[in-house]
């Protein structure tokens, strides 16, 4: 009995120490693979765990479902209110947060079955006017992804099929890639990190090709960074130190999830 009491006391003491130690509180989406989910299966979950361990901190999450592409204003409000401390993946230059140096760079991609024999290289390929093209639509045209705007500029509208970014059991995040594999659409244009994970899971061999943007196009490739509160220079410095020391491990996580990686451009912040 005495031994059992000592074990209970020891457990309580360890819990108290943990609660009193450094905290690594992450704002994340609970249902947005391959980025993050409650089961901690996303690559942002894996990177957060790596960062927390390297900093000797206890990892916890504030879950908030926001799936409108990059812009997750509600999450940034939780940063300001100090309910969490960090958002793992935001585009460089987003001015509501203090950002780290880039830790990866990726791009929008074409996804299509290898069996189709397509040789898509850019949005200027005339065959795109004859194909059924799947894209993620956000409802408000102003906020739609850059390739969607550029397709419209080229008069490619009527053969475009929209897919919702609000995920559910009926609308899983893999739906647009599943549609390519099933032949429901000929090609999908998807943000690379959202595509690669599901491309790897398909039984039908799929091609994934980076889309270059023309001189007058909106950019299709982005540096991705971590965001903290604007006044939290201390945490930013800690994160950048870990990003430097754990660069190889982070790259391995991204590659394991099929994220198409480009050479990172210099930090502009």
What does this protein structure show overall?
With 269 residues, the protein is an alpha/beta fold. Strands 1, 4, 5, 6, 7, 8, 9, 10, 11 and 12 form a 10-stranded mixed beta sheet that branches. It has a two-stranded antiparallel sheet with strand order 2-3. The chain is elongated.
Helix/strand order, N-terminal first: HEEEHEHEEEEHEHEHEEHH
Helix/strand-derived category reads alpha/beta
Low-confidence stretches: 1-19
Tally the helices.
Answer: 8
Number of distinct beta strands: 12
Q: Tell me, what's the shape? A: elongated
Approximately how much beta-strand content do the residues carry? 15-25%
Counting copies of identical and different chains, the oligomeric state is single chain
Name the CATH architecture of the largest domain: 3-Layer(aba) Sandwich
**N-to-C span:** 60 Å
CA radius of gyration: 21 Å
CATH fold descriptor of the largest domain: D-Maltodextrin-Binding Protein, domain 2
- Count of the domains: 2
Keywords:
2 domains, 12 strands, ten-stranded mixed β-sheet, D-Maltodextrin-Binding Protein, domain 2, 8 helices, alpha/beta, 269 residues
Give a quick summary of the entry.
This protein is of the alpha/beta class. The chain contains eight helices and twelve strands. Helix 4 (146-153) links the parallel strand 8 (133-137) and strand 9.
């Amino acid at each position: 009995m005495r031994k059992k009491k000592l074990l209970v006391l020891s457990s309580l003491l360890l819990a108290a120490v943990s609660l009193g130690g450094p905290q690594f509180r992450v704002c994340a989406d609970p249902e947005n693979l391959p980025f993050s989910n409650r089961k901690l299966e996303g690559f942002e979950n894996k990177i957060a765990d790596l960062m927390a361990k390297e900093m000797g901190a206890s990892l916890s999450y504030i879950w908030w479902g926001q799936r409108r592409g990059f812009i997750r204003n509600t999450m940034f409000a939780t940063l300001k209110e100090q309910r969490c401390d960090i958002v793992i993946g935001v585009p460089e230059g987003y001015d509501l947060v203090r950002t780290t140096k880039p830790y990866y760079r990726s791009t929008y991609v074409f996804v299509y079955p290898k069996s189709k024999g397509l040789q898509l290289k850019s949005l200027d390929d005339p065959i795109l006017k004859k194909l059924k093209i799947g894209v993620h639509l956000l409802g408000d045209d102003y906020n739609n992804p850059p390739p969607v705007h550029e397709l419209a500029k080229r008069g490619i509208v009527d053969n475009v099929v929209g897919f919702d970014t609000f995920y559910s059991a009926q609308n899983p995040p893999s739906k647009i890639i599943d549609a390519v594999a099933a032949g429901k659409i000929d090609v999908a244009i998807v943000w690379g990190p959202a595509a690669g994970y599901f491309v790897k899971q398909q039984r039908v061999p799929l091609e994934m090709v980076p889309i270059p943007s023309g001189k007058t196009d909106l950019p299709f490739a982005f540096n991705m960074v971590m965001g903290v509160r604007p006044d939290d220079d201390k945490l930013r410095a800690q994160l950048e130190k870990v990003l430097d020391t754990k660069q190889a491990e982070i790259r391995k996580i991204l590659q394991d999830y099929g994220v198409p990686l480009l050479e990172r451009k210099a930090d502009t912040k």
